[in-house]
Amino acid sequence: MDKDKKEKSKNKEEHEEQETPASQAADQGDESPTMVALTYDEYDALEKEIESLREDLEEQKDGWLRTRADFENYKKRVQRDAERSYQDAMTSVIKAFLSVSDDLERALKNQPEDQEMNSWVSGIELIHQKLMNQVKNLGVERLEVKPGDEFDPNIHEAITQEENPDFEEGQIIDVIQPGYKISTRIIRPAMVRVAR
User: Which of 121, 172, 166 is nearest to 151 (CA)?
Assistant: First the structure.
């Protein structure tokens, strides 16, 4: 029995002496790359698998990018729709105030000559100015249209076409009612007289 123990002990010592430096380094925690022998078919199969995984990765990446772009477009569309809804609501409310503004402007153009009425006229002018400031604070802008400008059917509405020696054909003679816009959207075109 002692002989068997001695042999086992001797075999163990010999085995420890025969360990390669690589296996000793692995035992010590060194992570050096391990070489593995592959056949050509195994190597070819691994290459194909890597290529397949790369293609799958590209497809996934492409799908993710498309989904992200679709979501960005959706957000922009929702924002545009919300702005449009806001502008629609504002347009209907603002138009009521614009008709009051037009009446005040017409009244101020025909001021009485009586000096006693000056304070009353000044009060009406202040009311009109305050109304227009409130409308402007809501994002509504008056269209800058003046006699001599070219007629543009996108922002002007011609109520008459007249012969006029002072203006060329297609020029605005007079602005009857001012036009207004919210952002780039025309909520009311300017009513104008146009030279023919």
Answer: 172
Residue labelled with tokens 């509504």: 140
Beta strand pairing call for 190-195 and 156-162: parallel
The answer to whether residues 161 and 196 touch, using CB atoms and an 8 Å cutoff, is: yes
For residue range 155-174, what is the model confidence (pLDDT) as tens digits? 999 999 999 888 999 999 99
- Dist. CA 161–CA 1, nearest whole Å: 130
- As given in the structure block, the two tokens for residue 181 are 């816009």
Q: What is the mean pLDDT of residues 41-67?
A: 93
pLDDT at 110: 83
Q: Which two tokens stand for residue 48?
A: 């194909």
- Of all residues in the chain, what percent are helix, strand and coil, respectively (each to 5)? 60, 15, 25
140 and 171 in contact (C-beta within 8 Å)?
no
What b-and-e string marks burial along 174-187, b requiring 16 or more CB atoms within 10 Å of the CB?
A: ebebbbbbbeeebb
Distance CA 120, CA 114 (A): 11
**What is the amino acid identity at position 112?**
P
Q: What is the reported pTM?
A: 0.58
Distance CA 38, CA 56 (A): 25
Give the Cα separation of 19 and 159 in Å (integer).
105
Contact partners, residue 121, CB within 8 Å, separation at least 6: 108, 111, 112
